[in-house]
Amino acid sequence: MKQAWRGADIAAELLAAARGWRAAGLIDETAFSAIAADHVATGPRLGPIWRVLVFLCVVVGVSTATTISFISFGLREATGVGVLMLILGIALAAITDVVIDRCSFQPTGAEAATSLLAAGYLCAAVFVLLDDLHLKGHEALRLTYPWCAAVFALAAWRWGFRLYAGAAALCILLLAAQFPGARPIWIAVATLIAAWATVTCATRQLAPSHREGVELVRIVALAAIYVAINYYSVDKGFLEELGRIVGAPRHRAGEASLLLAGLGSALFPLAILMWGLRSRDRALIVVGIIAAALSLTTVRFYFHVAPLWVVLAASGAALAGTSLLLERWLRSGEDAERFGFTAAPLYDEGRRERLLPVVAALSMAPAARIVPEELPGGSGKGGAFGGGGAAGSF
Amino acid sequence: MNQSLLESVGRLRARGTLTDSQAGFFGRIARGELVSVRIELQIALWAGVTLVAAGAGILVKDNLAHLGPVTIGAGIALAAALCLWYVARAAPPFSWGPVASPTLAFDYVLLLGVLLIGTDFAYLETQYKLLGSNWPWHLFLLSLIQLAFAFRYDSRAVLSLSLASFAAWRGVALSFPGGALFGRNEAAIRVNALVVGALFLAVGILIERAGRKSHFEPAFGNLGLLLLLGAAVAGVYGGYGHLDALWFPVLVVTAATTVTLSYRARRSDYFAQGVIAAYLGFLRLAAELHLEVGLFYLVSAGSFGVLLLILWAHRRFKEEP
Predict the structure, then answer these.
(1) Where are the beta strands (DSSP E) in chain A?
(2) Domain range for residue B252?
(3) Cα–Cα distance between B271 and B250 in angstroms, integer?
(4) Preceding amide of A44 cis, omega within 30
């Protein structure tokens, strides 16, 4: 990442924080204007809707232009297609650099589109070229995954898109699954990645985008560890399936593995949750909660604890009740905080806060009546239990 | 620790942009000494409400024979009443302007109460066939009740639910309007979607002009446009391989009107919807021309043309720094 981009990245982070502070009522308009005036060099923002539109237009435009180039050059052989994709990928990477460097609006959505297409083309080119060399299956994947990981890691490092960092970590993990003894290797690699990300975040002064990228890498690695130690995953041999050669027998988990998986499913979420609470790391807390929910779901899968409606209603009530009690407990603390946690908005939670209930409501909207069934004089079949969260017909 | 933000806060303090107390407070946030879990608590509340509502739905479905219709109906009604009792107790006085939620849980408890009413309504209607062949009217009735709660307690969530129920009454699903694209009666659904969308837009304009809950206008406007443009796009794409001669002009008119009016009114969200609908219409027209290789040239040129239009038009929609 160029020095100027790093500066713009830091300025954008500060402006985003300032907007959040203003929305939360922590600073007034004068202070916000002063902060914004200090960072005019970062240029005006293009809103999210505009960015999505620009992104779509660039993706469709460039993809069709690529197809035109294939047709125009009369390329039918894999080698030609692969080489052209490599050239186009490099060209798009250069265009991404130019857009980030020269465009007065940051971000525009165009750099996201060109970078995605560049990474996609570069990865696809290797698939095509390996296919041309008659390399298939594990041999091809063992070469493709490290190449893709390198492409995504480079893209994340150069342009600061955090999703590419996560994709790079995922590619490394998928590579680990291609070898015999996939699960222990997967766990070892994921642990190393998580450790590297934790140490890097704690010790190195990173640009905001890079820091977020490394944090995402850590989340991907921790999620990967959980996937590897979850009882259901071990029982069904999910990771072994990733690297299984066609025709080879399916992996059967031994009793010791299942016992360890049971312990891991119970202890890993608690450990992550405790780590998150101690370090006041929201991402770790969320990972811990999701892992705990998945472990409970796994228990429900193997043991019929109670009827489904009881489980859903009880867990829902427990979840809602716990969050209400927590909110009240945090609010009643000195300065509305306890142990460094608060339920008050500190950043721009306002928009999400307004949108979340709307999304929740629309996700539980009633099923539409079926128009063809409304025959004259017919009695109809009754409505679905929409509005209650269950859309099944009664 | 967010080192870059911490340094920025220090600089702002040194320049006098932030006061000592502000800099101290933001410094704590940057160092990770103070963390807000507000969104996480809200997501947990939402998940809790969803699970309880889903549990209630399954209870009704699975235990009808054991518990009997009266027990189930009364049980759900009691649960809904408890939720709404809490809401009525905690609610601030009515106002035609925006009213802040008194607690984090307020919106979700209200939503749960209203959802349980919906479940009870659907259950009673299915069980006792109170409306007979006019059973879809229970959705209309439900949408009116939800609308009343939305206005009284100033809830965008319940308002969205009300609009979705109203659309469902006319056979249109806001969550996944696939029925308007293909199906046995898709033409009727599209016409319904057009009418309902136009109605939502009209109500949105009306409340904004009257200054009565004018902050609800985006909900009416966005959902109205979604239906209006969605129906037109579905009409253009749903011609079973042929471009529908009737729906294409409808799409052109609705998209052009949306783009023009939203450009004048400086509404970027509406403008974007209009551009997307017009773009989809253009892609469908390009496919209809059977240009073979020329199709790719047309689509590519069209995409970059729309890109230029967007970059030209956005100047009118000023974004803050």
Answers:
(1) 337-338, 341-342
(2) 170-321
(3) 17
(4) no
| ipTM metric | 0.74
**How far off is chain A from B11, nearest CA to CA, in Å?**
10
Chain B 155-214, residues with CB within 8 Å of chain A CB atoms: 155-158, 160-161, 164-165, 167-175, 179, 183-185, 188-189, 192
**C-alpha dist (Å) from residue B279 to A59, B174, B315:** 14, 21, 20
Q: Do residues B148 and B181 share a domain? A: no
Cβ atoms of A257 and A235 within 8 Å: the answer is no
Q: Name beta bridge partners: A341.
A: A338, B35
Residue B147 in contact with partner chain A when CB distance is under 8 A: no
Which residue, B85, B119, B154, sits at the end of a domain?
A: B154
The structure tokens listed for A42 are: 């970062």
pLDDT tens by residue, chain A, 394 residues:
777 788 888 888 888 888 888 877 778 888 888 777 776 555 556 777 788 888 988 998 899 888 888 888 887 788 888 899 999 999 999 999 998 888 766 678 889 999 999 999 999 999 888 887 877 777 888 899 999 999 999 999 999 899 999 999 999 999 999 888 889 999 999 999 999 999 998 888 888 899 999 999 999 999 999 999 999 999 988 888 887 777 777 777 788 889 999 999 999 999 999 999 999 888 999 999 999 989 988 988 888 878 888 888 888 888 888 888 898 899 888 888 898 898 887 765 555 666 766 777 777 777 766 655 444 443 334 344 444 433 333 2
Asked if residue B67 and residue B149 are part of one domain, the reply reads yes
How many independent structural domains does chain B possess? 3
- For B43-182, strand residue ranges (E) read none
Please indicate whether, in this complex, the C-beta atoms of B42 and A40 are within 8 angstroms of each other.
no
- Residue A344 near residue B38 (C-beta atoms within 8 A): yes
Domain final residue pick, B102, B120, B154 = B154
Alpha-carbon distance A325 to A342, whole Å?
Answer: 13
In a 13 Å sphere around the CA of B99, the CA atoms on its Cβ side amount to 20
